[in-house]
Known about the structure:
Layout lengths: L12 H19 L26 H16 L6 H8 L15 E4 L4 E4 L7 E6 L6 H10 L5 H5 L4 H4 L4 H4 L8 H7 L1 H14 L4 E2 L6 E5 L2 H15 L2 E6 L12
Antiparallel strand pairs: 1-2, 3-5, 3-6, 4-5
Helix pairs in contact: 1-2, 4-8, 8-9, 9-10
Amino acid sequence: SLACDDPTLPTDSSNLVVAAAPALADTLGRRGEGSTGRRERVSAFLTQSIPAGAGLAGGSSDAASAILALASLWKLNWSIDQLAKFAAGLGSDLPFFFHGPSSICTGRGEIVRPIAKPTPTYAVLVLPDITMPTPLVYRTFDEMKLGSMRTIDDEPDFRAWAHLPADDLLPRLANDLEAPAFAIEPKLAELRSALAGRWNKVVRMSGSGSSLFTLTSDADEAEQLAKIAGEYFHVRAIAVRLAPALNMFKDRQ
């Protein structure tokens, strides 16, 4: 998994973004880097293009961007590692967004190891009109007694996986949250199976759902698969580049 949701924390984008500013100001006050009372007010406008409840960490990426913006506005001389450590207090998957674009996350998600970009260059995202409540998915996971420490201890060679073509990589991908999500919303399971049959490709769920995806290295194929999903299943589907280059971290080490 590239990102881990923490069901004990708010998942709404605006909640996370609004929480970032006072949390950072309070931290600076405790560190002696500035009084929270003297810090200027901040106005922010959030345009949410990643749908909520889709398992794509839209709220976490927004919060990470807010922290970077505040760090620039307040002229903080913090490294990326310092910012990521602070961000982990707001959400387990926030640190990923300070290290991307391709990383392995362990622990609660806060231990981030950047790796090479995957060989597949495109993901086809299917965004059904279904909102999955993250806490309920995790609670159902526990109730179903899923998961095994062996799958964590026997970590595969992810660096080798990065060099696999799409059709070899997809069967190796697993998401233990699929079973509880599909138990909560059987229509999502039906859509996944129908897409896999129509596309003749492995289809996986992202995060705690409800978005589904497959991988390819062919731009035309990605667009065609997205078109098929829309025409046959009447769902929103888009082709997106995987692990695009990021410039937001270039001035920090």
